[in-house]
Write a structure and sequence with these properties.
The protein contains 4 helices and no strands. The protein is an all-alpha fold. Helix 2 packs across helix 3.
């Protein structure tokens, strides 16, 4: 997600403000401690111009 934020010239605080959620929650998602709900992931993906799958870091 840090890459997607940078690509959109956004900071976590900008995303949290746009979506009306706490910056702390965004930080915990980035750290892998929490996850977006399906509806919130859809909003985040729309805002960042990506798919919901792009929000998840996949390990193969």
């Amino acid at each position: 997600m840090p890459y997607l934020l940078a690509k959109n010239k956004m900071r976590p605080v900008d995303l949290s403000r746009d979506l009306g959620i706490s910056q702390g929650f965004i930080s915990e998602v980035i750290a892998g401690k929490k996850y977006f709900s399906f509806p919130l992931a859809a909003k985040v993906a729309h805002r960042l111009g990506c798919t919901m799958e792009d929000l998840q870091e996949w390990e193969y």
